[in-house]
Amino acid sequence: MALAFDEFGRPFIILKEQEQKTRLRGLDAQKTNIAAGKAVARILRTSLGPKGMDKMLQSPDGEVTITNDGATILEQMDVDNQIAKLMVELSRSQDYEIGDGTTGVVVMAGALLEQAEKLLDRGIHPIRIAEGYELASRIAFEHLERIAQKFEFGLSNTESLVQTCMTTLSSKIVNRCKRDLAEIAVQAVLAVADLERRDVNLDLIKVEGKVGGKLEDTELIYGITLDKDMSHPQMPKRIEDAKIAILTCPFEPPKPKTKHKVDIDTVEKFQTLRVQEQKYFDDMVQKCKDVGATLVICQWGFDDEANHLLMHRNLPAVRWVGGVELELIAIATGGRIVPRFQELTPEKLGKAGLVREKSFGTTKDRMLYIEHCANSRAVTVFIRGGNKMMIEETKRSIHDALCVARNLIRNNSIVYGGGSAEISCSIAVEAAADRYPGVEQVRSLSLHPPMFIFVNHCH
Amino acid sequence: MAIDRIFKDEASEEKGERARMASFIGAMAIADLVKTTLGPKGMDKILQSTGRGREVTVTNDGATILKSLHIDNPAAKVLVDISKVQDDEVGDGTTSVVVLAGELLREAEKLVNAKIHPMTIISGYRMAAECARDVLLQRVVDNKEDAEKFKSDLMKIARTTLSSKILSQDKEHFAQLAVDAVMRLKGSTNLESIQIIKKPGGSLKDSFLDEGFILDKKIGIGQPKRIENAKILVANTAMDTDKVKIYGARVRVDSMSKVAEIEGAEKEKMREKVQKIIAHGINCFINRQLIYNFPEELFADAGILAIEHADFEGIERLGLVTGGEIASTFDNPESVKLGYCKLIEEIMIGEDKLIHFSGCELGQACTIVLRGASHHVLDEAERSLHDALCVLSQTVNDSRVLLGGGWPEMVMAKEVDELARKTPGKKSHAIEAFSRALVAIPTTIADNAGLDSAELVAKLRAEHHKEGCTAGIDVISGSVGDMAELGISEAFKVKQAVLLSATEAAEMILRVDEIITCAPRRREDRM
Predict the structure, then answer these.
(1) Rounded to an integer, what is the distance from CA A191 to the centroid of its chain?
(2) Where is the protein found, in the record's own terms (chain B) (predicted)?
(3) Tens digit of pLDDT for each residue in A100-120?
């Protein structure tokens, strides 16, 4: 094997360091792989369906996550085996592309592998099994297309969208309020959907969570929430009809981008410098007021003097706002992000109907709500909940529901759930099996997923 | 054939029965830990930190105890989290929520052993929680209209909250203190405006509420110690060296005389600044940052009281109390709003000197001075007072009130029992279990008081079958008493939050059927 003999009879080694590698070949290798795949599927099996259970995962740092979502469970699971890693990737790609069905896909893969094991035992060559599977899946796919139904939806007729989202949410812990959450998800997606192009940009929907309150307090805000408060405690906490200047330059004396040193060598220069400084702040604030802004949102910070001037001249301001949020604000209010004070013009201001600061609970936690924006294409789903883990799980569930709604907008055909689609496909494949020689054994593959939903229910 | 482990080494997986047992045990252990602190006869716990200094904390507050523990069990972490959230949201009821969640899980374990599926239990619990909440909403009392009654409600709630803490010996005194402080807030839930100053010495009875504002600072040297009709400028500016703010500037000279000139220019700059400040016509100047000696001297010459290093929160509170604007520039003296108060003087509390502002315009902020025997007593007193203040400020907004002493729990338990009788199917077992869990809170209160809990609770239940009953557990006399007469009340918001959080936490833990633990991250032992 690893040793070969050349024409003179001298041995030479083909594979080095034979002791440190292990090698499984043939049937053994395949059985091991299948066992690994089955193990992963077995873990996820009990999470499937409305009566599916959650899993508690403890990360290496001690953080606890409780979740029902297949992709999350697999990601946090820290697997070592290569085949198991393949399953993790499978679930992850399902999550990226479609958003939902991450548990179902792994369970189905596991079921296929289980069936294949039985066929391997009977001596059928793996390539033939693979070919058979391909054929069967093509048949199932065509059948699915045939039984799918197109349905109409519009801004006023959202019932079918809501029902589909409710199906997604029914297997998660938030199913207590699945109607409300489904409605929130559908409204959010419809608000940002581009109905002509049939596409939805999920980046425009921000999902924010805050501990406290109850799950029922979750709401959709046609605007943006910022986890910041006004930069000066004495600034007004409520502004109506705000014109917002969105800046990415700090309210500080300008810093040239090249390395430089300013040398002071006489008293006069010292004093001129002083006067200059003051003028800078004055100019900056004056410019903002001149263009008619009633609220300033800045990516960087404010110097104390500038802060005070802002408050004095009655110009509320927010500092240290993150880049992503700034973009969302720009989109929502229809403003432009301005990098220099000189470029401020009235057209570049964003408009919002109402900006208010809201405080929560007994701590100093305050958030800014920017509502009734000019362009309502950016929305925020604001989640409240009893504890941190609940909020994380709700975020994941809403994300799934949003993806489902998005998929429906892209392609508005549905099939009925509860295992009916799977059984129907299974029947079609069985019928086809009789027609194609060699595919006989491949029938019963599709029956398994609905079986699991059934098993999870009756205990 | 060997199956490779799909997990890394040291990662473990627990399934089914074992997972459930691990979660239940963890949660119940935590609940049992804090159980003995519940109620007026509840005891405190001593927590010793493992950090340097081996600091000791003595406390009764559930959230504080749980926050300080290092816990491995993930289900227990869920409970610690809900306690913390209860603390942040409402302030009180942190122990009750953990005890209720623990009881719900204990009952659930029995049901699971009887082969009822956790999902059934969860839907049963949900129905029961809805029903309990509805019945509470029906029986709630709202006295918002009548100011007199409302104030007495607040007093009752404050007394009930404080009765399980170290302040219970002087609860009249402190309840009055807390209610006064909260009434001054006028509806805002921002407790930052109430400052709590701790000064060791004296006893708890010597604590008082000061209507003005006390700043824990000393007056500068050579400055007047008492000012009447003070006009105050509150500022946040650097009075040490007025730095040139343009980045990259530095002084570069070629002779000593030039250095002296520039130094003179700096001094001039500072002098100008002080002049501008004085031009505001003030007689008191309070700065958040340092005031160097030179400007201090200038202020003293002008007869102005200058105070430095008032911390950030202090400045905000000062702004609130005196009505002044927090300034950082001084170019427009006419338009800056000055603070005003009738009298500023230096007072002594214990051995320390403090500055006292009285007769302030907008009295929204106030100060509570706590005196006590030792630091531990003071810390615990502050925590208890903070709890009471939180509850009261929440009640001012949501003025619904319930009777206390186990009354709401018995009322809910009775309704939930009725619901169980009407529900067909296995869910009714879960609903019954919920009702049993609710009764555990009065049972715990009675147990902690050393009374015969089984006897008392049975008596209580019988009482509750009468219409319009207001009976609860009176631990002082050791029997069933009338809560309305005894004046024991609790805020509706607290009870509702306890109910909902505990149910949610129990649901979360029940839904888990597998625990996967990743390998702990390898790190050096930090001690």
Answers:
(1) 18
(2) Cytoplasm
(3) 888 888 888 888 888 888 888
**Nearest chain B Cα distance for residue A186, angstroms:** 25
Q: How far apart are CA A94 and CA B294, in angstroms?
A: 70
State whether B521 and A58 contact (CB < 8 Å).
Answer: no
- Our count of domains for chain B comes to 3
Question: Pick from A346, A375, A404: which residue ends a domain?
Answer: A375
> Is residue A114 in some structural domain?
yes
Complex prediction ipTM: 0.75
Phi, psi angles (nearest 5°) of residue B15? -120, 160
- The beta-carbon neighbor of A387 closest among B5, B81, B236 is B81
State the nearest Cα–Cα gap between A284 and chain B, in angstroms.
15
* Inside any domain, residue A117: yes
Same structural domain, B241 and B110: no
- C-alpha dihedral over A346, A349, A350, A354, to 10 degrees? -80
Please tell me which of the candidates B74, B254, B500 has its beta carbon nearest to residue A56. Answer: B74
Distance CA B399, CA B458 (A): 32
One domain, residues B189 and B148: yes
pLDDT score for B3: 41
A248-257, A258-267, B369-378 — which one is most confidently predicted on average?
B369-378
Structural domain harbouring B455:
12-140+403-515
Residue B100 lies in a domain: yes
Exposure of A391 in the CB half-sphere (CA atoms within 13 A) = 21
Please check whether residue B520 lies inside any domain of the structure: no
Sign of the alpha-carbon dihedral angle for B490, B492, B497, B498: positive
- In angstroms, the separation between the Cα of residue A275 and the nearest Cα of chain B is 10
Do B231 and B128 lie in a common domain? no
Kindly state whether residues B247 and B351 are assigned to the same domain: yes
pLDDT tens digit sequence for B230-288: 888 887 777 766 555 555 566 667 777 777 777 777 788 788 888 887 887 788 888 88
pTM of the shown model: 0.82
Cβ contact B504–A211 (<8 Å): no
Please indicate, yes or no, whether residues B178 and B223 belong to a single structural domain of this protein: no
